[in-house]
Amino acid sequence: MSVEQQASPAERVSRRVDGVDVLGAISPSRAADFMTCPLLFRFRTVDRLPETFSVDAVRGTLVHKVLEDLYSLPAADRTPETARAMLVPTWEAFVADDPTLLHMFDAAEAAHEPGFLEWLRSAEVVLDRYFTLEDPRRLEPAERELYVEALLESKLLLRGFVDRIDVAPDGAIRISDYKTGSAPGVDHEAKALFQMKFYALVIWRMRGVIPRQLQLIYLGNGEIVRYEPDEDDLLATERKVNALWEAIRLADEVREWQPNRSRACDWCSFKTVCPAWGGTPPPVPDKRVRPDAAPPTAPRWFGRLRRWWRRSR
Ligand code: SF4
Question: What is the pTM of this model?
Answer without folding.
Answer: 0.84
